Structure formats: structure tokens, C-alpha cells
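User: C-alpha cells for both sequences below?

Assistant:
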Amino acid sequence: MAEPEPRDLAALLLTLTVVTGAVDAVSFLGLGRVFVANMTGNVVFLGFAAAGETTLSVLASLTAVLAFLAGALAGGRLARRDDDRDALRQATAAQAALIAVAVVLSVTLGGGTRLGAELLIVALGLAMGLQNAAVRRIGAPDLTTTVLTMTLTGFAADSKAAGGPGSHPLRKAAAVAAMLVGALAGGLLQLHVAMWAALGLALVLVLGVLAALYRAAVSGG
């Protein structure tokens, strides 16, 4: 089977990193200061909210964490398959469906009501949990599509200036740039256009990744 070459796979993972930035921009700016991909932030928010910070919601952060875990559980079951690219294809297909549901919810219920916000958090949390579990199976260094802390650590600690091998500095920089671009684009659309537009961008990107994965599978068949 002719799967994407490593460079092509890296491009797809970077695209999913852009999706992460866009989706988290929507959730943080439009759903009440909560993340649906960055679970570290939600755990910290839970602590802040428990300490008495009234602008943060324990319910929203807890919902996001539980939805993400459920998505990661489903993605983990897919990742048990022998073909990790097939797991990524199926997880990406499910992710696209969930983001499409989020687009519909943003148009109908919106994020301004508690019900609408919670349903959006659930759909997006499930989608990002699926993405992370499938990408984790691939194990591409510095391309987790969500967590940049270790990527930035590797960029500095593994650099030649630190006495390291200086491996893949461009890929590390590209991962950071991809997240920034996604957050910028998602933020601009969320703040100046509409939530559905920002989620629509994420959906188009995920569908593009899915199309590339299926094209590679079909061309190899």
C-alpha cells in the first residue's frame, strides 16, 4: 500500500496542528474560557476555578476533559489495529463528522447558551481526543498536533547551542508556527465573523487531510 511519504505525513500532521489552534481559539474565545484540545490548560483552569476564580467554569473544563478522554478512548481502540495509517484515516473521518456536528450546533444553538456551549464542548472534545490518540500511535517526533511544550523544549535543549544534535529544528519551528497560524485564523474568524466560520475552517482542513489519506490508500490499492 502506498502510504504518504514521511514528508507528506508531516504536512498532514502540521495541518492537524493548525486545526488544533483554530478549534481551541473557538472554545476559549467563544465557549467560556475552556480548551477542547489543550488538556493541560483545562486542568490548570479547574484548579483556578476551585480556588475561586469566577470567570472560569468548573463544569466547562470538566466536560472538556471527560469528552477528550472519551474521544481518546475511542481513538485508542482504533490504534490497536495493525495499520496505524488506517487508524489515522478512520479517526480523521470520525473527527470530521464531529466537527461537522459542531458547525451545525454553532449555527442552530450557538455558544451563547449553556446547553449549546456544553454540546459544542462535548463534540469538539471528542474530536480532539480522537485526533490525539491516532497521532500518538504514529509517534512522529515533535508533531503531536496539540502539545508544544515538549516541542519547544526540544527546540532549545536539543539545539547545537545547547550541545545537542540540533535534529529537526525546522519541523519543530513549523509545528509552533502551525499552532500559531491556526489560533490566529480561528481567533480572527471567531471574533470578527462567526463561530461557524472558524469551525468551518477547521472542518475544511480536516476534510483535506482525510482526502489525502484516502487518496494515498486508493493509489496503493
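Moving on to the next sequence.
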Amino acid sequence: MVTIYERKLGLSRRDLLKRGGATALLVVSGSAVISTEHAWGLEATALKAKTMATLIQMARDIYPHDQVPDKHYAIAVKGHDEAAAKDPAHKELIENGIADLDLRAGDGGYLGVGWEEERIKVLQQIESTPFFQAVRGGLVVGLYNQKEIWPLFGYEGESYSKGGYIERGFDDIEWL
């Protein structure tokens, strides 16, 4: 007798547990967002702590890099809290944008959507809005200008102070 096993689409318990260990738990407490797994915190001064937690998750979904810790995404979105403290219009843009995002995501809001693919579908609904463009645009500079994460991408930094690229491997074509 031959037994045939059919592979079903979905997630095994083992895969679920592996994924569960890879994601950090963010706790919203008062005016702070705290990572219990990696021992860092972010205090919100103008925006709600839940708004900041949602911005961190949104940032990770817009520019997903598994090797980049949440701490760096928090640093990248902190600029929105600082801008909101100075500009009521920016605060309104961000808070209303998050409220709309939570409404579109359904029960539990954006943070309650467990699967990245489902969160991406929600983000695609708002990608032409000024809110989304403000967050995405701020991330380009806020995330990728952090020198601490450059080694994770293999970027050595600017080359001018070290003699330029010509003297630092520009003509190195060992890969060819």
C-alpha cells in the first residue's frame, strides 16, 4: 500500500512558531512604545503612542528589511512626532491618516492585521494619499541615513573622506 501525502497551502505549527520568534512585540504604554524583546523604548510627545506603534509597523511594511531591528524603524518615524509637536497641520495629517488606516483594516485596526500580505493590501488603498506619501518620503531619509544600519546592507559609507571611490575598489572587477 502506498500512502500519498498532499502538501496543503498554509502554515505548519513549526513555521508559525519560527515566525513568531522573529517578530518583536511592541507594547504601547501611556505615551511610550516599548520593545520588550530588544530593550528599547520611544516616547511620543505630540502623537499618540498607538499612532507611533502603527507608524513603526507601517514603516516596516513599506520598506521591509528582516535584518533591520524595529528600533531603527522607530528612529525613522520619530521625526513625525517631532514635526507634529511644531505643526498642528502635520499632527492632524498623521493622526487622521492612522485613523483612516485603522478603519480600512477593520477590527483590531492596522496593528491587528497579523499577516504582512493583508497589511500591504490596506496600504495599497491609501498609497496616493498625502498621508502615505509623507510617511514614505520621511522614511527614505529617516531610515537609510542611519549609519548603524549601513553595514547590514553592505554599504561602507561615503568615500570622499577616504580618498574617493577610485582609490577604494572602483576598478576592482574580480567578480567579472
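User: Anything stand out in the second?

Assistant: Residues 13-154 form one domain.
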